[in-house]
Amino acid sequence: MNYEEELFQKRLLELAKKADSRNIVTFTDFLNLNELNIYHQSAGALSFVKCVGFGGYEQAERQILAFIPDALCYFTEDFADRTDFSVALRQSVRYPISCLRIEPQNKKFSGSLSHRDFLGAALNTGIERSTIGDILVEENAAWMFCLERMADFLSEALTRVRNTPVNVRQVPPEKIDYAPKYELVRGSVASVRLDSLLALAFGASRSSLVGLIEGGKVFVNGRLITSNGYKVKENDLISARGLGRFRYLGVSSSTKKGRLIAEIEKYI
Fold it and tell me: Where does the RNA-binding S4 domain lie (predicted)?
C-alpha cells in the first residue's frame, strides 16, 4: 500500500471514529473501485461501526460509504439473509446524493455525446472528481449523480457539453426513470472461475485475460481480485476496466461432457 492509499485508509478510520464517538452518520465522497477496495481491505479495523455503500441507484459503481454507529442502527441482524439487513440499513440512511438530468437544448442539432463528454464538461467547471458519481448516458442525454452540495452549482455552471448547449435540472430520486440496459449471454465454461466468465462475457481467450486480472483491473463487488481461479458466486457484479461489467446469474445446466452452461447479464 502506497502513501496515498495509507492516507485514504486513515481518512476512513477518522470518519468511522467520528461516527462512533458522536453517534452520528458520517459519509465519504464518491469512491472509485480502487478506493472501495481499500475500504474492503480495512473492514476489520472499521468493524466497530456499520458501513453501507450507495451510489444513488442499484448497481452503481461509484459509491458513497455511510458509517453508522450502533446507537443509530434500528434494525437487528435477525434476518435469514445478511443481505436483507444491509438493504434495510441502507434504506434507513439519507445519503447526500442528488441526481441531475442533462439534455441538449435542441436534440435535433446535438452532436453525439459520450460519457467522457459529460464528465469532461462537469470537471471543466472546476469541481473535484470525487463529487460526481456514476454518469448514465442514453441517447445524447445523461443522468449524473453528484454530492447534494454540488447540485445547485452544477445546475447553473454546466451549460455546454462539448459544443452542445444543454439544460440541467435536478430530479428527485423517486422520479429517476432509468433502467440499465444489458444483454443476456449464455455459454459453456469448464468452471465458474473468474477468468472463464470474463472470457465468456467479452469473447476473449482465458490466456489473454491473465494480464488484466493480475494487473489489478478486475473487481468483484468492489473488491480487487488478482487470482484467475477466483470462484465467482451467483449475483456477483464483475467490473473489468476498459471492457465493461456484468453480473453472473448462475449455471442453468450442464453438457454431457461435464461443462457448465453459465448465464450472465452484460451491461451495454
Answer: 192-249
Residue range 182-267, CATH number: 3.10.290.10
**If one looks up domain 97-175 in CATH, what number appears?**
3.30.70.330
Q: Burial level of 22, CB count in 10 A (0-12/13-18/19+)? A: exposed
Query: Tens digit of pLDDT for each residue in 81-125?
Result: 555 667 777 778 899 999 999 999 988 777 789 999 999 999 999
| Delimiting residues of CATH 3.30.70.330 domain(s) in the chain | 97-175
Return the CATH class of domain 3-91. alpha beta
For the entire predicted model, the pTM comes to 0.84
Cα(220)–Cα(228) distance, integer angstroms: 12
Q: At 228, list the grid cell.
A: 484467475
**Cα(92)–Cα(76) distance, rounded to whole angstroms?**
13
- Each residue of 95-116: b (16+ CB within 10 Å) or e? bebbbbbbbbeeeeebeebeee
pLDDT of residue 111: 77
Band of the pLDDT at 175, cuts 50, 70, 90?
Answer: confident
| Residues forming CATH 3.10.290.10 domain(s) in the chain | 182-267
